[in-house]
Amino acid sequence: MPAFKPSLTGDSAALPPEVRKQALWVAAITLGLHLLILAYDRATDFRAFSWGDRGLERTRILKIFADLHDPLLPAMTQSPIVPGEYIFALIPWTLAGPVGVIVMQIALAVLAAWLVARLAGRVTPWPRAPLACGLIYACIPQNLAFPHQLVTEAIVTPLCMVWLYATLSGLRGGRIAPFLIGGLALGLAMLTRPVVLLMLPVTFVLALLSPPARARLKRPGLYAMAAMALVPFAIWVAIFTSVTGHIGYNTGSANLAWNLRSKILITEKANGITPPEDVVTQEAGTSPARFLTEVRLHPVPFIKAAVLDTVTVFVRGNTTKITVDYLGIGRDPAGWRQQLVYAHDARQAWLAQVLSPVFLLEEAGSLLTGLFFAFVLWRVLVLLREAMRAAPAAPSDPIFLTLVTAAWLINVLLSAQMVDQAQGRLRNPAEAALILFAAMALGRMRQRLKGL
Description:
Elements: H1 17-43, H2 55-66, H3 72-78, H4 87-96, H5 98-123, H6 129-139, H7 141-145, H8 153-173, H9 176-192, H10 199-208, H11 211-216, H12 220-244, H13 256-270, H14 277-281, H15 288-297, H16 299-315, H17 320-323, H18 336-341, H19 346-353, H20 357-389, H21 396-418, H22 431-451
């Protein structure tokens, strides 16, 4: 029976000086890259700052809160976006405008890359893994562009990396402080993107199936982490519900009901189906039960949309986050993606753009991304099987990294189905864990080949 083995000397292994050195190099290079991009931001008068997903809406709301003289709580509950989408940027914006927000987000990006490098030194025996993993993570197109835009990923993605690093540190050392730090980071991420909440129950269920993870579920630190993670979002939901009288967390488009309604309208109109009147008039959104009714009535279009959303979120290279959303090359806010992904004549639209340099770059990036996710999915299934058979005393890092990676894959899949139009950016919070898992899986494969 194959068993998990520690990458270094065990759960309590100290971080070697060479790993710490490489992690510092990753942080320095990441900072240098973003400072160069910041210089471009200033040269272009920060024109791309609000070009990200719903960036114009967030910028408008950020300005409203920065100049607010009315009571704060009613304004927060009436806002169409959740507090995390503007609250972290509010003070930097007030102090220095877009440059303040970008500098804050650059600091988070550097922190995340540094943590990726440090964790890579624990989960894989490759000497240069910290440098390689850290720089690969830092140079993903999304991670280069998002810190310079007003998008949720610039906050959520680093916080998710802090959660992963702190939780693994808590499991390794047994101290409560890392668990509390990790829980707070995940809680703030939930306050910004509520779907992150799914990581807790999904990871817990997977942990119940693995003997070494199940043995560690007895530690109070994990429950302290989960409780800390739930506090910020639970407090906000309670406040929103008590003020508005409606259970929820916001009144705008960043909620499930709005997305399900929009998904019905987009899918049915793109396939020549007249949407039902009650869906058209329900501007507040559609319930999951009503959505499933439409799916049963028109299964083929909705199955096609689900498959395309899944492929989009896992395969799309998202180089357009730099070329289109940041540099503005061929920028078309009117909805080029809807034609390519949902419309019944998508192939015709695809052929019309096949010779575009932006499209060719995206195609190359998507090929690499698709191969990467195929490898990750394959190895997750293999290592999950091993984790289910591992001894209870097996080291925590490889076990929990495998479980978290599997949970992130499930989270990304569900996220793609819960929004009206899936995009590659939905996988951004998961990418650090996926890169680290891929490095660990490659290292284990190499070790086994050497043992043959």
